[in-house]
Design goal:
homotetramer; 462 residues; alpha/beta; Metallo-beta-lactamase, Chain A; Oxidized Rhodanese, domain 1; 3 domains; 22% strand; globular
């Protein structure tokens, strides 16, 4: 029996491949050509036939790859029965699928979403000892799933989730390997451990969420502060009705200067500079968003619509394809191309260049101390809750800036700041795009600030 | 934290890579250039520094890669204290090493070998809950380690092993991931499950060896029948004193016909045809051993000495490098080359060809029924114990044939037979080399025989 | 400027990629997923846009990949104007395309086919000095194209070809790199050198076909004896009207025994064993064709129809995908699967096995000398013309056997023989399939026979 | 016959692999692990034995890989006889080596260096028609070799070179493929075409150097202005006596912050930031040199000594290994490590950051027009000769700045400028390191300036 974790950097999402005796199942595949190919290659290298694709739940942060894998393999898609999926077949409590001497049984474990399933894997030789459980977004290593996304309200969902975990999952005993759908860094939870997997018994003892009474748990979940970026709704719609097909999707084309310039001048086109903030600071094209490469799996979803035309400016040409892979995971499929040769091609042609001020925290502090600069804290509410730089900081999640430009402080230079400087630079680039002069990004952000032992402020109402 | 299993096909051996926060440890690395490179690449890709190399025990079936990995990384080698290793530093009961927020504690778990350790991995955040245990050859998925190799006798070793498992390992609780040094197919045990890993709790319930009382366990271990191939002693010597260095080892050279012919005519050179038996049957070079590619990790050790010159005849040129990788794992380092173009190069030059008769079990049965053929069963004693083809079969382990040629039945054709036809063909090629005419191999062997529902005989004294 | 040769083993076909300053053209791409990917990857790695796909002529031995590449890149297909292609745009004598500072001019060079073009590449800086010429099947390294395929007759075509070479190509001077569409081993010509490319000046001096007077040349071409396998007509039809689309083509599926057995029992299904003849000899499945892997680019086209269902039995599972790639080059797209685990899976299940006698030339000679065997020479007419083994051999091209079974000598064992034993084994497997007992293949064939200095016979009327 | 070009980006150097019938020769291999592996892999994939390693001359811009390849293959090294090489065997005029049906004849073609050879490749079937010539640094596509490096003076060398080309090479006729040792971008010549190879006949017509009379040629060569960076002498010494062995060379180690900080504080250690200038501009570590990744094959040789300890700060971790490969080509082997996580790791820890001003040419012009800035033109003399930005620019080759700091204009901000901004940033980083405040780099450099149609000045005496 093989059990493989296929990890998506950027998304921190986990797909699993289970196979034995020539047959296999895939759990929660993603829609990205490379991810799909990896699944097919594992099956091919071991001469295994993929019989089932099992969805733990309707995901919000990426689109399902199950229709694509099903098309290429003839496998059957199964998912929870509490949502009217337009594809695949439902699994109800206790339903089973079998392949290669293994059985997977579905447990209905709502709370994160109403149709969430936990899959329990058994070796048919020992039909009553779970080998592994696939918990989706219900139970993570060191954490539990969000309860703010499903209808019904955080509190009711938290009660449901508590019930799912304590009445359905924990009774499975200590011995099963636990395989969640996300690891540290995902937008689908907070406080996850950085181990890729765990065991149910280990979580029982070490997962802080499992040490709480029902009331404590519900209170804790109600107090969790997450943002719900607009693309979640698009993902949900796609994942209910079937995402746009992957085949036929075009990869971005390397463009010469003329073609690139025409493309970025088109109305509504988003120019995204995927270089790190320092490079953006040293020189960039006016009007570009600065979303670092690793953020391309999330922030285009936060800032743009799925059908927006996105043109890329990479640090290296090949980065454009990585960025595009990330975009394909969220079905942002309208990526005509990128500038071959990147920013240097632009610069060497004598075209105009803008600079972004990049401040160290030392420089920031000096300016703040002299009152020379305003501070925009673009982190998430749950980060604000853990402290910030100065009491007067304007708190505005990076995804909200474009809609709240009138609330941005004017009159003096403004520093956009996050935890390390990535989202800060998205924020600063948005400010610059909107016509605000003297926007700065803070390199190292709140992390560097804390390392310097500079004073920290609290935002009690954040 | 990452925990990666690096699997050696052929050996069915497991190396583990554990890493977190920029630091790493490797457990039981093998000495093979590709395996070493895989370890270095994992560290490199994640920018991790390998601080420790941990040996669970002195292995018998391959040579340690720890000196090589230590040389390339500066890591410290640690191993058990009950053998006078000429390299590395000893770990005693309770000794710990720490790296990247993780701690590994050594448990002395003798039985398979006197210095065997089980390593217990802890996340320092939860210092009393084992994350994973690395059980070496002490405890396997579905089985336990051999007790016939260490000094002291099978029975005493079995008692020691029982104690190690029940007093040291099982008290660690149910929740730890269990990571043994071998999987199904290894020569270091029998009856292993085909899952790559398990949990301690799962094994407690599902491992048949753990369901036995002490006396039952000891009796079962004493009744286990393993062969001890001669290379085990060489591996032990190498692993105690340090194996020959890998750097400087030459890979085999592609030879033209003249060079190849000169090489195989040298006194003492072993010509090994790594094609499958059917191909060997259709045509081969007189005097060649037929060891199928997958068997090259084991059977050269059974048949040859570590310093013998081994010349290869591959199905495809590239197979020669795979065969050589397998040989390098057991420090069989004297592999001057192989024939470019393989058997067809030989055949097309008009050089003489021999054929080997390949019998289906149907054909075998017909011949046996008519008394036209003798049968040599070249499997291991524990396989004989589970039944065979005909009462009159001569039982002779494939590794013993060359030393017992006088016991081989003469006077009529003889069929060499094993479980599927691989070792059978080694045996048949040895018979032919020794001048016996009319040697046959049985395609499908005992496996096919059973599928045909032909009568099965018992060898009560095997 | 880059100029890359993309070579198809098996077909011995050459595709060329020319690129400069961000733009590129591809000459004669093939329809195979790996080949297409290689083209896209070259363009991608260098950030080049493929503007043109240039066809030298309508090929007979594989299907065009130009529609596929055009679909994926937006490039324009150009080809000769003397055939009513259903896709692309015609190029007439002197027509040019330009990209990246380069110009390609078309020369009409009929003879091999009526619409054959030779493309001449110029650097626009030196507009009158050809950098390279792409001669398609008109002029090869050391040879010239066949004249037996085009309508009009060998002799008239030879005159046309002579004119094309001497009046169109040779006047281009000595200095151009010469890039033909085929190398040694192609079915599109004979006597080609094994250099991948040459210069026009070198060929003028070294190509024996260019040393002949017009009459000598025409006589030589008229005397050339080629076979015209049936798939040539299918390829021509596809290449005129557009081949079946590649996207949507399924790769073969690894099958278990039951699925495999059901597949090969279907009426009309062709079971192809792609192992080398020695392995086929040692054991095979009754009714299988034995086409060695390297022959899968040609002989399925010779023996089967494009829509026949082809099921594969590979030496290793991965070989099935190589075989399928070769099949996809000739649009043989109906390849449902292969047996996972290959012949050993079959054999180990106790299923029935057949053997094929494999003779060395020594063994063949002994049998011939005693009159114990008949000989079927399955080579091509032009090979017969160069000599054979015995005067009484029955000459029958391997592609003709199935249609001429009544002419196969009966009454004694029969040896199927070719140049080395590959086509011989195809022939022997066909004989066996047709119910002829005691068919043999000759390992090493005529090549080994000559190496032994055995007497050679002439077939004056072959 | 295969003829493969193995190209080193960065160096623009060409190694060639020639093979046929199981034997091969390599021309001018480089000492870099990846390059050596590529050679061995080509030989391995085709089952070829490398018999000869042929050096065209003692190179100045990288170290020879011939001793390494010889050690790994047993091949014989051959080189010119007019230098007392401490390894290999000399070839004199007309000496030949043969392998695989091919012959290579040496022509003595001094001028670039006294022992320079041109190798002429023949197919033994046509012993008087050259297939290809390997011209080393004697004759390039569109150019000829430098004459300023050999003893004897530019003029005498130019006469010798003219003689070598016109009396030795051109008489070989038009038809040979021409394979030079360098392509566009090399420091070993100027004005090379970007085609990887050519034919001798094409060069006769298109190479401007071959259109000149002897006197014109000598005058042109004497007027060529090249810099001779100090590492050339080290390379010459290594290449005469044998470079340091590659085996045992350590690859750089990924370091944590503490280890990195300790390493860069060591006296004499060079910290090299391999990011592009824009990123360096946005934030960098005080005291670091900014050598963009592509420049790492040359500029460490210009600025540092071979034994200097070089610590790297990469844009991405993997870039450190690319930088190290480039360094290994010039035997700069003392590269202890790099900072894992790069600049962001530094910045996020709150450590101090410096910024470099990056000017667009528009911004530069505005400042120059207002007299607010001085200009340091760090290009090479031959580039100055073709024009520059302002008459008052201080001309100082980037390799000379550290030795001429007292000549750097003080008193106002200073912009370091080259052709595109890469060397400019090296210069600006040197200025900053030397304590000059307000150093700037010019993004796009003279290339962007010209694109803007800004006025150009001449430096008649440069």
């Amino acid at each position: 029996m093989i059990l493989k974790l296929l990890k998506a950097e950027g998304l921190a999402h986990h797909t699993y491949f289970i196979g034995s005796k020539g047959e296999a199942a895939v759990i929660d595949p993603r829609r990205e050509a490379g991810d799909v190919k990896e699944i097919l290659d594992i099956a091919r290298d071991r001469c295994m036939r993929i019989k089932y694709i099992l969805e733990t739940h309707r995901n919000e942060d990426f689109v399902h790859g199950s229709p694509e894998v099903a098309r290429l393999t003839g496998a059957t898609i199964r998912h929870g029965s509490n949502l009217p999926f337009k594809y695949g077949e439902p699994m109800k409590e206790g339903d089973e699928v079998s392949f290669g001497g293994l059985t997977v049984r579905a447990l209905e474990t709502p709370g994160h979403t109403p149709e969430s399933l936990t899959y329990v894997l058994y070796d048919t030789t020992f039909p009553d000892i779970p080998v592994a459980i696939f918990t989706g977004d219900t139970l993570f290593v060191g954490s539990t799933g969000r309860t703010d996304l499903a209808p019904g309200g955080k509190e009711a969902n938290a009660r449901t989730l508590y019930h799912s975990i304590h009445e359905k999952i924990l009774p499975l005993g200590d011995t099963a390997l636990m395989c969640p759908a996300h690891g540290a860094g995902s937008v689908c939870g907070a406080g996850m451990g950085d181990r890729d997997w765990s065991t149910l018994g280990y979580e029982k003892r070490a997962n802080p969420h499992l040490q709480l009474s029902k009331d404590e748990f519900v209170r804790a979940k109600v107090n969790e502060k997450f943002v719900i970026p607009p693309y979640f709704r698009t993902m949900e719609e796609y994942n209910l009705n079937g995402p746009p097909p992957l085949s036929g999707r075009k990869t971005p084309r390397g463009m010469g200067l003329a073609e690139f310039e025409a493309a970025i001048r088109k109305d509504g086109t988003k120019l995204v500079d995927t270089r790190l903030p320092q490079a953006y600071g040293g020189g960039h094209i006016a009007g570009s968003y600065n979303i670092w490469l690793g953020g391309m799996a999330v922030f285009p979803g936060v800032l743009f619509n799925a059908r927006d035309e996105i043109v890329l400016l990479p640090y290296r040409d090949q980065d454009a394809y990585t960025a595009d892979r990330y975009l394909s995971r969220i079905s942002y499929d309208n990526v005509p191309g990128f500038l071959c040769g990147g920013f240097e091609k632009w610069q060497n042609s004598g075209r105009p260049i803008r600079h972004m001020g990049e401040l160290s925290v030392e420089e920031l502090k000096a300016k703040l101390d002299k009152g020379e600069i305003a501070l925009l804290d673009v982190r998430e509410p749950r980060e604000w809750a853990a402290g910030g730089i100065v009491p007067g900081a304007r708190l505005m999640y990076v995804g909200d800036i474009e809609g709240r430009l009138k609330d941005v402080p004017r009159g003096k230079p403004i520093a956009s700041m996050c935890s390390v400087g990535h989202r800060g630079s998205i924020g600063a680039s948005i400010l610059e795009r909107s016509g605000i002069e003297n926007a700065y990004n803070v390199l190292g952000g709140f992390t560097a600030w804390k390392h310097k032992d500079y004073p920290i402020t609290k935002f009690p109402n954040a």
